[in-house]
UniProtKB/TrEMBL annotation:
Pfam families tied to this protein: ADH_zinc_N_2 (PF13602)
Protein name: Uncharacterized protein
Leader peptide range in chain numbering: none
PANTHER family in UniProt: ALCOHOL DEHYDROGENASE RELATED (PTHR11695), RETICULON-4-INTERACTING PROTEIN 1, MITOCHONDRIAL (PTHR11695:SF294)
UniProt source species: Ralstonia holmesii
Transmembrane segments: none
Amino acid sequence: MQMSSSTTKKQDFENILRDYDVVLNSQDGKTLNKSLRLLKGGGKLISISGPPDPEFAKEIGAPWFVKLFARMLSAGIRRKAKRRGINFSFLFMKAAGDQLREITRLIDAGNIHPVVDRVFPFESTNEAMAYVETGRAKGKVVVKIK
């Protein structure tokens, strides 16, 4: 589903969208909680911005105290998700050469179309960050090194 920017600025997404199977959250905790309302029972909420869950701590072979810390950090969102019949998990993003090559191939083939809002020279990094913080970007903001 696509919405016009005027719709999304006037209304909160959690009041418009419903019955999705999966939500991938990359925002803050407030947005993570709102995302629960978009999912239907049995849905999956995946966050790449945290909080880490016990399963993630187990996968990386963390010591017991880190596992406990991850359990405590994610307790609130896991409890809310469980009440709604939704599964929550944390996904740690890491660069993988094979995946990056495949993404590059898809972009080169025209299957993926990255949306670039503005490109700033390296010397204007502070200006680029300020622009991102305004929330007006309609795509990715790029800082060009060379």
